[in-house]
């Protein structure tokens, strides 16, 4: 399939985090560490609107991927609270009950750097597994939904293929389709193009831009500053476990207010 070059989503006005559609995600004083030495979230606070596409940037070890894994419920936190869609979602100090609302977790989809497809299952079987096992969808309903997403992503001919028969870009598009099968309210993308060849990068980025045009709420961790500038409604720069600075991409990439942000961007953009 010939994939057109990346096209920017329609520009939108910058929106303050306390506007009308606030309270989609709220992180308050979230703490996470690996042992005593590596603190990746240090009383981290962050708000996200339902119409936001947050791009998280920052140096290695600043907690970007850990943030996504926590939001997906894959890892716990040691302190603080996270609300999702106005409801308590994760609590780092729960004494009684569960520290995570499993029902809310099913409304979040995540795509990883290395696809995480089941190699022994066909593309169709990868897509329908969770909807049939977790959501109780019939095989016929799940198959119809899978076909729809594969057509949208230009993969209809790969329905019965196995992951070993796909290119890296195709695998990542299948992974996106699989996450969409559960009809999430929020999509998380963790460095999903970092292992791909340049041509395949464009394939995957175009799919993400299509989701942006459909107003899908997204949190994206990426080292690709060009892509970040095109897809983000807001860029969040993290370092040392904290949000150092955040704002619309035009402001962050051209007139950052914090010295630490400027230092990081000068290094990254110079390397680019």
Characterise the protein shown here:
With 272 residues, the chain is of the alpha/beta class. Helix content is 34%, strand content 23%. It contains nine helices and ten strands. The strands form two sheets. It has a six-stranded mixed beta sheet with strand order 6-7-8-3-9-10, with helices on both faces. A hairpin with a 2-residue loop joins strand 9 and strand 10. Helix 3 packs parallel to helix 5 and helix 5 runs parallel beside helix 6. The chain is globular, with a radius of gyration of 19 Å. The model is unreliable at 1-20 (pLDDT under 50).
Give keywords:
272 residues, four-stranded antiparallel beta sheet, 9 helices, disordered N terminus
Write the layout of secondary structure elements.
Blueprint: E1 25-34, E2 38-48, E3 53-57, H1 64-71, E4 79-84, E5 87-91, H2 102-105, E6 108-111, H3 123-133, H4 139-152, H5 168-180, E7 186-190, H6 198-213, E8 217-221, H7 225-231, E9 234-239, E10 242-247, H8 249-254, H9 259-271
Parallel strand pairs: 3-8, 3-9, 6-7, 7-8
Antiparallel strand pairs: 1-2, 1-4, 4-5, 9-10
Helix pairs in contact: 3-4, 3-5, 5-6
């Amino acid at each position: 399939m010939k994939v057109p070059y990346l096209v920017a989503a329609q520009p939108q006005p910058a929106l303050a985090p306390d506007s009308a559609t606030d309270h989609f995600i709220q992180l308050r004083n979230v703490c996470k560490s690996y042992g005593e030495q590596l603190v990746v979230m240090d009383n981290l606070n962050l708000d996200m609107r339902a119409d936001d596409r947050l791009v998280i940037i920052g140096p290695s070890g600043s907690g970007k991927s850990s943030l996504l894994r926590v939001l997906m419920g894959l890892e716990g936190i040691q302190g603080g609270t996270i609300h999702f869609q106005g409801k308590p979602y994760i609590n780092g100090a729960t004494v009684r009950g569960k520290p995570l609302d499993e029902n809310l977790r099913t409304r979040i989809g995540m795509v990883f750097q290395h696809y995480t497809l089941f190699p022994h299952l066909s593309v169709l079987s990868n897509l329908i597994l969770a909807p049939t096992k977790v959501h109780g969808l019939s095989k016929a309903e799940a198959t119809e939904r899978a076909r729809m997403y594969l057509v949208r992503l230009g993969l209809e001919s790969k329905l019965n293929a196995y992951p070993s028969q796909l290119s890296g870009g195709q695998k990542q598009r299948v992974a996106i389709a699989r996450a969409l099968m559960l009809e999430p309210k929020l999509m998380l993308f963790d460095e999903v193009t970092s292992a791909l060849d340049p041509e395949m990068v464009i394939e995957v980025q175009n799919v993400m831009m299509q989701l942006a045009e459909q107003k899908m709420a997204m949190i994206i961790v990426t080292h690709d500053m060009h892509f970040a500038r095109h897809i983000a409604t807001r860029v969040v720069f993290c370092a040392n476990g904290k949000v150092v600075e955040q704002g619309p991409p035009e402001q962050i990439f051209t007139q950052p207010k914090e010295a630490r942000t400027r230092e990081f961007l000068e290094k990254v953009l110079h390397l680019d």
